C-alpha cells in the first residue's frame, strides 16, 4: 500500500465529548487538500469512553487510525508515538481539544508544497483563556525566547506541519524530557509561521492541561534549552556575597563606633538566608542530576497496547 500524502497526528486524553466533532472537522480540512491522507489519533490511556468513540468513528472513516497506548505517558510522549507511526510525506501535529483550528492545515500544506518551506507552525496572536493563565504563559514564552535563543519557539505550541526531511531530523532527537516546540525550532530548516487566535474549547470546559502540567512542561523546556537555572544560582550567589559584604562593613563600623545592635536576630536572619540559598542551589542541581539519570536509564517513551489500522 502506498504511503499517503499527508498524516495528521492528534493525541487525545479523556476527550469523549469532542471525538465526533474533532474527526469531522479534521476530515473536512484534510479533504480540502486531497483524499490521500490519514489521521492518527493517539489515545493516551484515557479513562472515559474516548477509545470506543474513536473506534466507532473509525468504522465510518477508514482513513482514521487509532493508536492506543498502554497507559497515560504524557502529552509529548503521545505525540512522539504518533509521529513514529505516521507514513505521510507531510506530517501535521494538532492537539485534540480543538483549540487549534484544523481549518488552517491547508494553509500550512501550501507553505510546504508551493513555497518551499520545510516546517509551518501556528503562531498564537491571541488566546481565549483566562487572564491569569495568559499572563503565566506569555511570561514563560518571553523568558524561554530570551534565554534559549530559539526565536521560532515564541508563542507557539505543537500545532504544525513538517515535510518528511524535517520530520526525519526531528525524530532523530531522542531525549526523554521533551519540549516539542523547542525541538522543532532547534532542527532549523526553512520555517514559516501561520498566525491565528487560539480558541476556547468547544464544550466550554477548562483546558485539560492544568497549571501543574504546564509548570512541569515549562521546567522541561527551561532545563533542556537554556542555562537560566544555572544563571539564577550564579546571580543569587553573587548578590548574596555583595549583600553580606555590605553587612560585614556595617557590623565592623557599628562595633567601632559602639552602636552595634544587641541580640542575635541579624545573625539568625543571615543563617536562614544563606541556608535557603543553598537549598535552592541543591534543588536546581538535583533537577539536572535527575534529568541526566533519566536519560541514562534510556527507558522507552511509551508502550503501544494496540494499533487499529489497515
From TrEMBL:
It is a multi-pass membrane protein. One of its GO terms (molecular function) is dolichyl-phosphate beta-D-mannosyltransferase activity. The chain crosses the membrane at residues 232-251, 271-290. Its EC number is 2.4.1.83. It holds the Pfam family Glycos_transf_2. Keywords: Glycosyltransferase, Membrane, Transferase, Transmembrane, Transmembrane helix. InterPro entries: Glyco_trans_2-like, Glycosyltransferase_2, Nucleotide-diphossugar_trans. Coiled coil: none annotated. It is found in: Membrane. Residues 7-167 form the Glycosyltransferase 2-like domain. The keyword Membrane applies. This is Dolichol-phosphate mannosyltransferase. It comes from Hymenobacter caeli.
Amino acid at each position: 500500500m502506498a504511503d499517503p500524502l499527508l498524516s495528521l497526528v492528534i493525541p487525545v486524553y479523556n476527550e469523549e465529548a469532542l471525538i465526533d466533532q474533532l474527526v469531522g472537522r479534521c476530515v473536512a480540512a484534510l479533504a480540502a487538500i486531497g483524499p490521500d491522507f490519514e489521521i492518527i489519533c493517539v489515545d493516551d490511556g484515557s479513562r472515559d469512553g474516548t477509545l470506543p468513540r474513536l473506534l466507532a468513528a473509525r468504522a465510518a472513516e477508514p482513513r482514521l487510525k487509532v493508536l492506543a497506548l498502554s497507559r497515560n505517558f504524557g502529552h509529548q510522549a503521545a505525540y512522539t508515538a504518533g509521529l513514529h507511526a505516521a507514513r505521510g510525506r507531510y506530517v501535521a501535529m494538532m492537539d485534540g481539544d480543538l483549540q487549534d483550528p484544523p481549518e488552517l492545515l491547508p494553509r500550512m500544506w501550501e507553505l510546504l508544497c508551493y513555497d518551499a518551506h520545510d516546517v509551518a507552525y501556528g503562531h498564537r496572536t491571541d488566546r481565549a483563556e483566562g487572564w491569569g493563565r495568559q499572563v503565566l504563559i506569555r511570561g514563560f514564552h518571553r523568558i524561554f525566547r530570551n534565554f534559549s535563543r530559539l526565536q521560532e519557539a515564541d508563542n507557539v505550541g505543537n500545532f504544525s506541519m513538517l515535510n518528511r526531511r524535517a520530520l526525519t531530523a526531528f525524530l532523530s532527537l531522542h531525549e526523554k524530557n521533551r519540549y516539542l516546540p523547542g525541538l522543532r525550532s532547534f532542527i532549523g530548516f526553512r520555517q514559516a509561521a501561520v498566525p491565528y487566535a487560539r480558541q476556547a474549547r468547544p464544550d466550554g470546559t477548562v483546558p485539560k492541561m492544568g497549571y501543574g502540567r504546564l509548570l512541569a512542561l515549562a521546567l522541561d523546556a527551561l532545563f533542556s534549552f537554556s542555562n537560566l537555572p544555572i544563571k539564577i544560582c550564579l546571580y543569587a550567589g553573587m548578590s548574596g556575597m555583595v549583600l553580606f559584604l555590605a553587612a560585614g562593613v556595617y557590623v565592623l563600623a557599628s562595633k567601632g563606633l559602639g552602636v552595634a545592635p544587641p541580640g542575635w536576630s541579624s545573625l539568625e536572619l543571615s543563617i536562614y538566608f544563606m541556608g535557603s540559598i543553598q537549598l535552592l542551589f541543591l534543588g536546581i542541581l538535583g533537577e539536572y542530576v535527575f534529568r541526566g539519570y533519566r536519560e541514562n536509564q534510556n527507558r522507552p517513551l511509551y508502550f503501544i497496547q494496540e494499533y487499529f489500522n489497515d
